[in-house]
TrEMBL record:
Protein name: UDP-glucose 4-epimerase
Keywords: Carbohydrate metabolism, Isomerase, NAD
Protein's gene: galE_1
GO molecular function: UDP-glucose 4-epimerase activity
Family: Belongs to the NAD(P)-dependent epimerase/dehydratase family.
Span of domain NAD-dependent epimerase/dehydratase: 4-246
Protein backbone atom coordinates (compact mmCIF):
# COMPACT_ATOMS: atom_id res chain seq x y z
CA UNK A 1 0.00 0.00 0.00
CA UNK A 2 0.96 3.62 -0.48
CA UNK A 3 0.91 5.14 3.00
CA UNK A 4 1.34 8.55 4.59
CA UNK A 5 2.92 8.57 8.06
CA UNK A 6 2.43 11.87 9.86
CA UNK A 7 4.98 12.48 12.61
CA UNK A 8 7.23 9.84 11.08
CA UNK A 9 10.37 11.66 12.23
CA UNK A 10 9.40 11.11 15.88
CA UNK A 11 9.98 8.13 18.13
CA UNK A 12 6.96 5.90 17.52
CA UNK A 13 6.30 7.23 14.02
CA UNK A 14 9.83 6.44 12.82
CA UNK A 15 9.74 2.89 14.21
CA UNK A 16 6.35 2.24 12.61
CA UNK A 17 7.56 3.71 9.30
CA UNK A 18 10.54 1.34 9.40
CA UNK A 19 8.23 -1.63 10.01
CA UNK A 20 5.94 -0.55 7.16
CA UNK A 21 8.89 -0.34 4.77
CA UNK A 22 10.12 -3.77 5.87
CA UNK A 23 6.63 -5.14 5.12
CA UNK A 24 6.90 -3.83 1.54
CA UNK A 25 4.75 -0.71 1.77
CA UNK A 26 5.48 2.57 -0.01
CA UNK A 27 5.94 5.18 2.75
CA UNK A 28 5.86 8.97 2.75
CA UNK A 29 6.68 10.76 6.00
CA UNK A 30 5.14 14.17 6.74
CA UNK A 31 6.73 15.96 9.71
CA UNK A 32 7.44 19.58 10.61
CA UNK A 33 10.50 18.54 12.70
CA UNK A 34 9.29 20.59 15.67
CA UNK A 35 9.92 17.60 17.92
CA UNK A 36 11.12 14.98 15.43
CA UNK A 37 14.53 14.47 13.85
CA UNK A 38 15.34 14.41 10.15
CA UNK A 39 17.81 11.55 10.60
CA UNK A 40 15.05 9.45 12.20
CA UNK A 41 13.15 9.22 8.90
CA UNK A 42 13.85 5.67 7.69
CA UNK A 43 15.88 5.08 4.57
CA UNK A 44 13.53 4.32 1.70
CA UNK A 45 10.77 6.66 2.86
CA UNK A 46 9.98 9.85 0.99
CA UNK A 47 10.14 12.87 3.30
CA UNK A 48 7.96 15.98 3.17
CA UNK A 49 8.70 18.71 5.71
CA UNK A 50 5.52 20.47 6.69
CA UNK A 51 2.79 20.89 9.30
CA UNK A 52 0.04 18.30 9.10
CA UNK A 53 -2.88 20.70 9.03
CA UNK A 54 -1.34 22.80 6.28
CA UNK A 55 0.42 20.24 4.09
CA UNK A 56 -1.66 17.04 4.27
CA UNK A 57 -4.09 18.14 1.54
CA UNK A 58 -1.35 18.71 -1.03
CA UNK A 59 0.38 15.45 -0.11
CA UNK A 60 -2.75 13.28 -0.17
CA UNK A 61 -3.76 14.72 -3.56
CA UNK A 62 -1.21 12.32 -5.08
CA UNK A 63 -3.40 9.40 -3.99
CA UNK A 64 -2.78 7.20 -0.95
CA UNK A 65 -4.19 3.94 0.40
CA UNK A 66 -3.99 4.99 4.02
CA UNK A 67 -2.72 7.37 6.70
CA UNK A 68 -1.04 6.56 9.99
CA UNK A 69 -1.38 9.68 12.14
CA UNK A 70 1.25 10.12 14.86
CA UNK A 71 1.92 13.87 14.66
CA UNK A 72 0.85 15.54 17.92
CA UNK A 73 1.92 17.46 20.97
CA UNK A 74 2.15 15.04 23.88
CA UNK A 75 3.41 16.72 27.08
CA UNK A 76 0.77 16.60 29.80
CA UNK A 77 2.27 19.43 31.85
CA UNK A 78 2.59 21.70 28.84
CA UNK A 79 -1.01 20.96 27.90
CA UNK A 80 -2.16 22.25 31.30
CA UNK A 81 -0.05 25.40 31.04
CA UNK A 82 -0.70 26.06 27.34
CA UNK A 83 -3.96 24.33 26.34
CA UNK A 84 -4.20 26.48 23.21
CA UNK A 85 -1.21 24.63 21.75
CA UNK A 86 -3.04 21.34 22.13
CA UNK A 87 -6.42 22.40 20.80
CA UNK A 88 -4.70 23.96 17.80
CA UNK A 89 -1.78 21.58 17.27
CA UNK A 90 -3.71 18.38 17.94
CA UNK A 91 -7.38 18.99 17.25
CA UNK A 92 -7.42 21.67 14.54
CA UNK A 93 -4.55 20.05 12.63
CA UNK A 94 -6.20 16.63 12.83
CA UNK A 95 -9.55 17.99 11.64
CA UNK A 96 -7.79 19.45 8.62
CA UNK A 97 -6.15 16.07 8.02
CA UNK A 98 -9.56 14.37 8.21
CA UNK A 99 -10.90 16.83 5.67
CA UNK A 100 -7.98 16.09 3.35
CA UNK A 101 -8.62 12.37 3.80
CA UNK A 102 -12.28 12.88 2.89
CA UNK A 103 -11.57 15.19 -0.04
CA UNK A 104 -9.04 12.83 -1.60
CA UNK A 105 -10.95 9.66 -0.70
CA UNK A 106 -8.12 8.09 1.26
CA UNK A 107 -9.80 4.91 2.53
CA UNK A 108 -7.91 4.04 5.76
CA UNK A 109 -6.72 5.79 8.91
CA UNK A 110 -4.82 4.46 11.93
CA UNK A 111 -4.68 7.02 14.73
CA UNK A 112 -2.18 7.24 17.59
CA UNK A 113 -4.46 7.75 20.59
CA UNK A 114 -3.57 7.47 24.28
CA UNK A 115 -4.47 6.06 27.67
CA UNK A 116 -4.80 9.68 28.80
CA UNK A 117 -8.30 9.66 27.26
CA UNK A 118 -9.47 7.58 30.25
CA UNK A 119 -8.26 9.85 33.05
CA UNK A 120 -8.56 8.39 36.56
CA UNK A 121 -9.49 4.71 36.14
CA UNK A 122 -12.37 3.20 38.08
CA UNK A 123 -11.07 -0.34 37.50
CA UNK A 124 -7.83 -1.91 36.32
CA UNK A 125 -6.93 -3.38 33.92
CA UNK A 126 -8.61 -0.65 31.86
CA UNK A 127 -10.88 -1.89 29.08
CA UNK A 128 -12.02 0.03 26.04
CA UNK A 129 -15.53 0.37 27.47
CA UNK A 130 -14.22 2.24 30.54
CA UNK A 131 -15.50 5.82 30.93
CA UNK A 132 -13.38 8.34 29.01
CA UNK A 133 -12.85 11.27 31.39
CA UNK A 134 -9.48 12.87 30.62
CA UNK A 135 -7.94 14.99 33.36
CA UNK A 136 -5.77 17.24 31.16
CA UNK A 137 -6.00 19.02 27.80
CA UNK A 138 -3.65 16.52 26.15
CA UNK A 139 -5.99 13.60 26.86
CA UNK A 140 -9.01 15.73 26.04
CA UNK A 141 -7.55 16.71 22.67
CA UNK A 142 -6.92 13.08 21.76
CA UNK A 143 -10.42 12.08 22.83
CA UNK A 144 -11.88 14.89 20.71
CA UNK A 145 -10.06 13.49 17.67
CA UNK A 146 -11.38 10.01 18.43
CA UNK A 147 -14.92 11.41 18.42
CA UNK A 148 -14.27 13.20 15.12
CA UNK A 149 -12.91 10.02 13.54
CA UNK A 150 -16.03 8.12 14.58
CA UNK A 151 -18.23 10.68 12.86
CA UNK A 152 -16.14 10.57 9.66
CA UNK A 153 -16.31 6.78 9.63
CA UNK A 154 -20.09 6.87 10.08
CA UNK A 155 -20.76 9.62 7.53
CA UNK A 156 -18.08 9.02 4.90
CA UNK A 157 -17.23 5.32 5.13
CA UNK A 158 -13.72 5.83 6.47
CA UNK A 159 -12.04 2.64 7.70
CA UNK A 160 -10.43 3.76 10.96
CA UNK A 161 -8.66 2.30 13.98
CA UNK A 162 -7.48 4.19 17.08
CA UNK A 163 -4.77 2.60 19.23
CA UNK A 164 -4.66 3.83 22.81
CA UNK A 165 -1.12 3.35 24.08
CA UNK A 166 -0.06 3.19 27.66
CA UNK A 167 3.74 3.48 28.19
CA UNK A 168 6.01 2.73 25.24
CA UNK A 169 9.69 1.82 25.54
CA UNK A 170 12.60 0.14 23.79
CA UNK A 171 14.10 0.88 20.40
CA UNK A 172 14.27 -0.55 16.89
CA UNK A 173 17.76 -0.45 15.40
CA UNK A 174 18.74 3.20 15.02
CA UNK A 175 15.21 4.39 15.79
CA UNK A 176 14.55 5.17 19.44
CA UNK A 177 13.40 7.65 22.04
CA UNK A 178 15.16 11.03 22.12
CA UNK A 179 12.84 13.81 23.15
CA UNK A 180 14.14 17.33 23.57
CA UNK A 181 12.13 17.52 26.79
CA UNK A 182 12.22 14.08 28.41
CA UNK A 183 9.34 13.13 30.70
CA UNK A 184 9.27 9.33 30.36
CA UNK A 185 10.62 7.15 33.17
CA UNK A 186 12.84 4.66 31.33
CA UNK A 187 14.89 7.21 29.33
CA UNK A 188 15.19 9.42 32.43
CA UNK A 189 16.55 6.49 34.47
CA UNK A 190 18.95 5.60 31.66
CA UNK A 191 20.15 9.21 31.54
CA UNK A 192 21.17 8.76 35.19
CA UNK A 193 23.03 5.57 34.26
CA UNK A 194 24.79 7.47 31.45
CA UNK A 195 25.87 10.27 33.78
CA UNK A 196 23.57 12.85 32.21
CA UNK A 197 21.53 13.25 35.41
CA UNK A 198 22.54 12.85 39.04
CA UNK A 199 19.48 10.89 40.19
CA UNK A 200 15.93 9.89 39.37
CA UNK A 201 13.03 11.15 41.45
CA UNK A 202 10.46 8.69 42.77
CA UNK A 203 7.18 10.53 43.23
CA UNK A 204 5.68 8.89 46.30
CA UNK A 205 6.68 5.71 48.10
CA UNK A 206 3.44 5.17 50.01
CA UNK A 207 1.06 4.26 47.21
CA UNK A 208 -1.32 1.29 47.78
CA UNK A 209 0.88 -1.02 45.68
CA UNK A 210 3.13 -3.96 46.67
CA UNK A 211 6.29 -1.83 46.91
CA UNK A 212 4.70 1.56 47.54
CA UNK A 213 5.51 3.07 44.13
CA UNK A 214 3.20 3.72 41.18
CA UNK A 215 2.55 0.94 38.69
CA UNK A 216 2.49 1.66 34.98
CA UNK A 217 2.02 -0.46 31.86
CA UNK A 218 4.88 -0.82 29.38
CA UNK A 219 4.91 -2.17 25.83
CA UNK A 220 7.88 -2.49 23.49
CA UNK A 221 7.81 -0.10 20.54
CA UNK A 222 8.27 -3.02 18.12
CA UNK A 223 5.14 -4.68 19.51
CA UNK A 224 3.36 -1.36 19.16
CA UNK A 225 4.41 -1.19 15.51
CA UNK A 226 3.11 -4.69 14.84
CA UNK A 227 -0.27 -3.58 16.18
CA UNK A 228 -0.32 -0.72 13.67
CA UNK A 229 0.29 -3.09 10.77
CA UNK A 230 -2.54 -5.33 11.97
CA UNK A 231 -4.84 -2.33 12.40
CA UNK A 232 -4.06 -1.16 8.89
CA UNK A 233 -4.82 -4.59 7.44
CA UNK A 234 -8.08 -5.06 9.36
CA UNK A 235 -9.59 -1.57 9.16
CA UNK A 236 -13.21 -1.90 8.03
CA UNK A 237 -15.01 0.72 5.89
CA UNK A 238 -17.56 2.71 7.87
CA UNK A 239 -16.16 1.52 11.21
CA UNK A 240 -13.99 3.17 13.84
CA UNK A 241 -12.46 0.51 16.09
CA UNK A 242 -10.62 1.48 19.30
CA UNK A 243 -8.09 -0.79 20.99
CA UNK A 244 -5.85 -0.53 24.03
CA UNK A 245 -2.20 -1.55 23.84
CA UNK A 246 -0.39 -2.65 26.97
CA UNK A 247 0.92 -5.62 28.92
CA UNK A 248 -2.08 -6.31 31.15
CA UNK A 249 0.09 -6.43 34.27
CA UNK A 250 2.36 -3.39 34.67
CA UNK A 251 5.57 -2.65 36.53
CA UNK A 252 6.24 -0.39 39.50
CA UNK A 253 8.61 2.57 39.39
CA UNK A 254 10.95 0.66 41.69
CA UNK A 255 10.86 -2.38 39.38
CA UNK A 256 11.75 -0.18 36.40
CA UNK A 257 14.70 1.36 38.25
CA UNK A 258 15.91 -2.07 39.40
CA UNK A 259 15.67 -3.43 35.85
CA UNK A 260 17.70 -0.48 34.58
CA UNK A 261 20.33 -1.12 37.28
CA UNK A 262 20.58 -4.77 36.25
CA UNK A 263 20.79 -4.04 32.52
CA UNK A 264 23.26 -1.15 32.75
CA UNK A 265 25.36 -2.27 35.71
CA UNK A 266 25.11 1.24 37.20
CA UNK A 267 23.83 2.01 40.72
CA UNK A 268 21.35 4.71 39.56
CA UNK A 269 20.60 6.81 42.66
CA UNK A 270 16.88 7.27 43.34
CA UNK A 271 15.55 10.13 45.47
CA UNK A 272 12.15 10.12 47.16
CA UNK A 273 9.89 13.02 46.23
CA UNK A 274 6.30 13.97 47.16
CA UNK A 275 3.41 12.51 45.19
CA UNK A 276 2.36 14.49 42.14
CA UNK A 277 -1.22 15.72 41.96
CA UNK A 278 -3.32 13.63 39.61
CA UNK A 279 -1.04 10.57 39.56
CA UNK A 280 -3.13 7.37 39.81
CA UNK A 281 -1.60 4.53 41.82
CA UNK A 282 -2.05 1.99 39.02
CA UNK A 283 -2.52 2.39 35.26
CA UNK A 284 -2.67 -0.93 33.44
CA UNK A 285 -4.34 -1.78 30.13
CA UNK A 286 -6.41 -4.72 29.10
CA UNK A 287 -5.34 -5.64 25.56
CA UNK A 288 -7.73 -8.57 25.33
CA UNK A 289 -9.81 -6.92 22.59
CA UNK A 290 -7.01 -6.40 20.07
CA UNK A 291 -5.59 -9.84 20.86
CA UNK A 292 -8.94 -11.55 20.28
CA UNK A 293 -10.02 -9.49 17.27
CA UNK A 294 -6.78 -8.85 15.37
CA UNK A 295 -4.56 -11.59 16.78
CA UNK A 296 -2.04 -9.18 18.30
CA UNK A 297 0.51 -10.59 20.72
CA UNK A 298 3.69 -9.24 22.28
CA UNK A 299 7.09 -10.59 21.27
CA UNK A 300 8.66 -8.70 24.20
CA UNK A 301 6.89 -9.78 27.37
CA UNK A 302 9.49 -8.73 29.94
CA UNK A 303 10.69 -5.37 31.18
CA UNK A 304 14.39 -6.24 30.72
CA UNK A 305 14.00 -6.58 26.93
CA UNK A 306 12.49 -3.09 26.72
CA UNK A 307 15.21 -1.59 28.92
CA UNK A 308 18.05 -3.42 27.13
CA UNK A 309 17.01 -2.11 23.71
CA UNK A 310 16.54 1.42 25.07
CA UNK A 311 19.98 1.27 26.76
CA UNK A 312 21.68 0.08 23.56
CA UNK A 313 20.12 2.96 21.66
CA UNK A 314 21.06 5.46 24.38
CA UNK A 315 24.69 4.29 24.37
CA UNK A 316 24.91 4.66 20.61
CA UNK A 317 23.83 8.31 20.98
CA UNK A 318 26.45 9.15 23.64
CA UNK A 319 29.38 11.33 22.51
CA UNK A 320 32.63 9.44 22.00
Amino acid sequence: MKLLVTGGAGYIGSVCAAHLLAAGHDVTVLDDLSTGHRDAVPDGAEFVEGEVGEASGDVLAAGFDGVLHFAARSLVGESVQHPERYWTGNVVASLRLLEAIRAHRTPRLVFSSTAATYGEPEQVPIREDAPARPTNPYGASKLAIDHAITSYADAHGLAAVSLRYFNVGGAHGRYGERHRTETHLIPIVLQVAAGQRESVQVYGEDWPTPDGTCIRDYVHVDDLASAHLLALAHATPGTHAIYNLGSGTGFSVREVIDACREVTGHPIPAVAAPRRDGDPAVLVASSDAISATLGWSRAHTGLHSIVADAWRFAQERLPV
